[in-house]
């Protein structure tokens, strides 16, 4: 029988400051970039035209740029897309003179004829065209906003029902952390944000929340079981006890998302990358963010469950110093 | 033991139900006839899972009323008119399952799976609607020409398809006819007899006399043949001067067969949609009769008065975009600016639809395309291949991890995973949801999430065993204690997916749906099925001391 991390006894909480530093180092620059440059929203949000072409031979983005320039289509983004002979041309509304309803259609036709002139009509094939008018783009922004808003509400209601507010607050803060790191991640890789990517973020937030819930459930159980232990140790114990489950379940889920990243093609890649990262950050935050935050909250506003832990904890009011953990013996 | 049997019974039932949902079923599709190039209905057998446009390739268009050249008073009504018009043209697209629907208040969605030419599709949709009223062939000139046409066709080497008493058929179909048409029909019956050896000719074998002059009924499956015959130059030449043939929009069924009406109508309209100003449907509560009231322009009223005066007792075909809508009504008396079409006991819905047709012809709605997505068929195929490959690798990794780590118990979980995939696909087929590319990803992802329930259970069993519990008790306790965590871990994901389904568009909805169905199926398999497997295992090895977990 293989047992990973069975009877593990790591002092996770001790590393919390390192974890804060690490996560801040990830979030702050990413968020600064996000505030300055925004995100790379897909055509469906901004409105505009996207054309994916497959050429018979790899021609390079320069040649396509020349073809478009010759036809007077400027400010269009040209990007190699997956294979060496596939390219995506994006003309967002506001750029390249695309402004009003209907002109996105004209742009698609213009790009097609520009390529026919520049490359030769038999040298390429249009694989995909998306032409989204500004109105549909705005609507989709609204829909994405609604999805985010309602899933927040649902998550909050669920947590409120599931836990008393101290645990709930810790879980919400951990979730907030997940959102911030995911935005930073999307910004670093300059991933295209489509509605599907928003969907991935929301789903994975729900999924990573479970991790926090499962650890917190164990914390609550252990708080009742070992009333004499301090919270610091109980948190460590709970994380260690749930560690095999975390490793296994994230292992299997990540196996599938990594398979999607590597094999499912270019269209799904941003979506799969976001999901993979979200699993990672969700696991990280349940251990290094949610648990320590719960400790601070309980110290500031002690709750019924943790009261025993507070009373028997030496110098509870002092600044928390890393302590050598004591593995509590399970009462048989 | 009885408990185990009933469990197996339920699982077996679910499996059978799933297989039943997935066996290839007959679905009706419009397909392009290879020889004639026309559209026809065929039934084909296929697994009833719908593929989204991103997997099949095709065109998705969202259209709205174009208000840039001046405001349109009622965009919602205009879009309904446009929908009605696009529906009449549905065959022109030449794709198997075109989707035409109004979304929200003022948007028309047209989805054409498999269509390759966006420019052509857009042309069909945006073409201006044309409505006209024409008098049917009251003197049966076309019918009288049929023997001649038959001869010409035979001379050209066209064989008569299958035997069948056409005229006799018709009397069976519509027993009670007016004496007037009956008399004419007798004449019609005699007409084919004049052809060689009393057999029906190539064309007359296909045509059944309808209920009114100038109306013919062609069995649905024969429509492409009839169309190709009528399109031949030697036939065109013999169609009497001043007449044209027009097909009806809706098939009509009689005696368990489906017929498509064909009308011989005058080549000159008595009035066109331009002169139409208003058309409304009402239902008389007392008589239970549906009627459509229409109003013409002053000028149109004068023309219509003159024409209807000449044609009292004649039938007037309402033709939208070259197709005859409904059965032509009879002109009872001279009509001026205001007219009424009586639909008898037909439901109000039919009257409203006819009124919509009239308005569509009167006020064509200029449409502008607000969204277009075209996916080439090869890209769709690539997406399926990539998605399936990723899925297989992902699932293989999950199997490896589970069996490697949990041994025999892992094997149980993995075999339950097979059922999970079956249940999920069956769920998609059962509820008629569409599988999209993100949906495929959702399917793969939910396999990863699915085993989470088993991981929770197995870990709990391990802990219980560690605490010195007996195998049987450990298994029971493991399942019992893991339950709350399992429900927790799925509730929030399902809730999020549900929200995504509500607010999302096609591809995202596909993702949300597979996730919801996948997670539901995983709850069933991971908890119920794996539990049953354990029960079988423990029943066969009651003396088991160590558990392979």
Which CATH C-level class of the largest domain in chain B is it?
Mainly Alpha
Helix content of chain B: 40-55%
Q: Tell me the name of the CATH homologous superfamily of the largest domain in chain B.
A: Multidrug efflux transporter AcrB transmembrane domain
**Percent in helix of chain A:** 55-70%
How much strand content do the residues of chain A show? 5-15%
Strand portion of chain B: 15-25%
Poorly predicted spans of chain B: 163-198
Instruction: Tally the beta strands of chain B.
Output: 20
Query: Looking across the biggest beta sheet of chain A, what order are the strands in?
Result: 3-4-2-5
Mean pLDDT of chain B: 80
Dominant shape of chain B:
elongated
Which radius of gyration of chain A do the C-alpha atoms yield? 25 Å
Provide the descriptors you would attach to this structure in a database record.
heterodimer; A: 332 residues; alpha+beta; Multidrug efflux transporter AcrB transmembrane fold; Alpha-Beta Plaits; four-stranded antiparallel beta sheet; 10% strand; elongated; B: 549 residues; 4 domains; five-stranded antiparallel beta sheet; 20 strands; 52% helix
Can you describe what's shown?
The complex is a heterodimer of chains A (332) and B (549). Chain A is of the alpha+beta class. Chain A folds into two domains: 13-40 and 163-311, Multidrug efflux transporter AcrB transmembrane fold (Up-down Bundle), CATH 1.20.1640; 46-132, Alpha-Beta Plaits (2-Layer Sandwich), CATH 3.30.70. Chain A is built from ten helices and six strands, in the order H-E-H-E-H-E-E-H-E-H-H-E-H-H-H-H. Chain A has helices at residues 16-37, 43-46, 61-70, 103-119, 134-162, 165-189, 195-225, 231-263, 269-300, 307-311; strands spanning 40-41, 48-55, 77-80, 86-92, 124-132, 192-193. In chain A, the strands form two sheets. Chain A has a four-stranded antiparallel sheet with strand order 3-4-2-5. In chain A, helix 8 runs antiparallel to helix 9. The longest helix of chain A is centred in the last third of the chain and has 33 residues, at 231-263. Residues 310-324 of chain A have low confidence and may be disordered. Chain B has four domains: 2-24 and 376-540, Multidrug efflux transporter AcrB transmembrane fold (Up-down Bundle), CATH 1.20.1640; 58-128 and 367-374, Alpha-Beta Plaits (2-Layer Sandwich); 135-266, no CATH class; 271-362, 2-Layer Sandwich (Gyrase A, domain 2). In chain B, strands 8, 9, 10, 11 and 12 form a five-stranded antiparallel sheet that branches. In chain B, a hairpin with a 5-residue loop joins strand 8 (208-209) and strand 9 (215-219). In chain B, helix 14 runs antiparallel to helix 15. The longest helix of chain B has 54 residues, at 377-430.
């Amino acid at each position: 029988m293989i047992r990973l991390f069975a009877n593990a006894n790591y002092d996770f909480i001790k590393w919390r400051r390192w974890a804060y530093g690490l996560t801040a180092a990830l979030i702050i620059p990413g968020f600064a970039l996000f505030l300055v440059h925004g995100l790379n929203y897909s055509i469906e949000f901004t409105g505009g035209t996207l054309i994916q072409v497959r050429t018979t031979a790899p021609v390079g983005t320069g040649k396509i740029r020349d073809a478009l320039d010759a036809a007077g289509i400027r400010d269009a983004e040209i990007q190699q897309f997956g294979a060496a002979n596939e390219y995506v041309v994006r003309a967002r509304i506001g750029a390249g003179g695309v402004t009003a309803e209907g002109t996105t259609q004209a742009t698609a036709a213009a790009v097609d004829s520009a390529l026919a002139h520049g490359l030769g009509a038999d040298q390429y094939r249009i694989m995909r065209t998306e032409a989204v008018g500004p109105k549909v783009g705005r609507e989709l922004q609204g829909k994405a906003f609604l999805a985010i808003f309602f899933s927040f509400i649902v998550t909050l209601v669920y947590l409120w029902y599931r836990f008393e507010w101290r645990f709930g607050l810790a879980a919400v803060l951990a979730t907030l952390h997940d959102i911030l790191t995911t935005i930073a991640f999307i910004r670093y890789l300059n991933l295209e944000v489509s509605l599907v990517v928003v969907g991935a973020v929301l789903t994975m937030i729900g999924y990573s929340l479970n991790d926090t819930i499962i650890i917190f459930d164990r914390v609550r159980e252990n708080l009742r079981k070992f009333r004499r232990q301090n919270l610091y140790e109980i948190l460590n114990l709970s994380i260690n006890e749930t560690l095999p489950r975390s490793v296994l379940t994230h292992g299997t889920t990540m196996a599938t998302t990594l398979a999607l990243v590597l094999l499912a093609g270019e269209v799904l890649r941003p979506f799969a990358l976001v999901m993979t990262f979200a699993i990672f950050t969700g696991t990280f935050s349940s251990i290094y963010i949610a648990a320590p935050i719960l400790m601070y909250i309980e110290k500031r506003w002690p709750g019924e469950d943790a009261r025993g832990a507070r009373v028997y904890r030496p110098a509870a009011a002092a600044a928390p110093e890393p302590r050598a953990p004591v593995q509590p013996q399970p009462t048989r | 033991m009885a408990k185990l049997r009933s469990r197996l019974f339920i699982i077996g039932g679910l499996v059978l139900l799933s297989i039943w949902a997935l066996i290839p079923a007959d679905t009706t599709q419009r397909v392009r006839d290879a020889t004639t190039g026309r559209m026809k209905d065929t039934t084909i057998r296929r697994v009833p899972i719908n593929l989204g446009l991103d997997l099949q390739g095709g065109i998705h268009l969202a259209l709205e009323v174009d208000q840039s050249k001046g405001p349109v008073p009622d965009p919602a009504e205009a879009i309904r008119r446009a929908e009605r018009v696009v529906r009449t043209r549905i065959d022109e697209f030449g794709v198997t399952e075109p989707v035409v629907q109004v979304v929200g208040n003022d948007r028309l969605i047209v989805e054409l799976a498999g269509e390759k030419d966006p420019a052509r599709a857009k042309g069909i949709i945006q073409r201006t609607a044309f409505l006209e009223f024409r008098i049917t062939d009251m003197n049966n000139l076309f019918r009288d020409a049929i023997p001649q046409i038959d001869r010409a066709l035979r001379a050209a080497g066209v064989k008569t398809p299958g035997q069948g008493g056409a005229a006799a058929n018709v009397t069976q179909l519509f027993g009670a006819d007016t004496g007037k048409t009956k008399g004419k029909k007798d004449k019609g019956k005699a007409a084919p007899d004049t052809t060689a050896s009393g057999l029906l000719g190539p064309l007359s074998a296909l045509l059944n006399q309808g209920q009114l002059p100038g109306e013919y009924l062609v069995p649905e499956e024969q429509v492409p043949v009839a169309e190709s015959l009528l399109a031949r130059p030697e036939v065109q030449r013999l169609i009497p001067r001043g007449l044209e043939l027009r097909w009806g929009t809706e098939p009509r069924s009689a005696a368990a067969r489906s017929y498509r009406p064909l009308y011989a109508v005058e080549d000159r309209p008595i009035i066109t949609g331009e002169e139409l100003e208003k058309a409304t449907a009402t239902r008389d509560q007392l008589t239970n009769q549906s009627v459509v009231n229409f109003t013409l322009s002053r000028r149109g009223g004068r023309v219509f008065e003159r024409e209807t005066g000449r044609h009292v007792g004649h039938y007037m075909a309402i033709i939208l975009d070259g197709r005859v809508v409904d059965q032509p009504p009879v002109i009872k008396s001279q009509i001026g600016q205001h007219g009424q079409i009586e639909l008898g006991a037909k439901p109000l819905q039919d009257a409203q639809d006819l009124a919509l047709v009239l308005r569509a012809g009167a006020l064509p709605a200029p449409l502008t395309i607000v969204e277009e997505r075209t996916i080439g068929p090869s890209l769709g195929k690539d997406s399926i291949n990539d998605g399936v490959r990723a899925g297989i690798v992902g699932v293989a990794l999950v199997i490896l991890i589970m069996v490697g780590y949990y041994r025999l118990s892992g094997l149980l979980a993995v075999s339950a995973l097979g059922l999970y995939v079956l249940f999920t696909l069956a769920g998609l087929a059962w509820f008629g949801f569409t599988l999209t590319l993100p949906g495929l990803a959702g399917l793969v992802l939910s396999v990863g999430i699915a085993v989470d329930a088993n991981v929770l259970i197995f870990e709990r069993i391990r802990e219980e065993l560690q605490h010195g519990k007996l195998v049987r008790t450990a298994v029971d306790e493991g399942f019992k204690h893991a339950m709350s965590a399992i429900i927790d871990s799925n509730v929030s994901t399902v809730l999020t997916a549900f929200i995504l389904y509500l607010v999302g568009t096609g591809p995202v909805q596909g993702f949300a749906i597979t996730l919801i169905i996948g997670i539901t199926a995983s709850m069933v398999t991971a908890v119920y099925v794996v539990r049953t497997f354990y029960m079988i295992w423990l029943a066969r090895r009651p003396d088991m001391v160590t558990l392979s977990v």
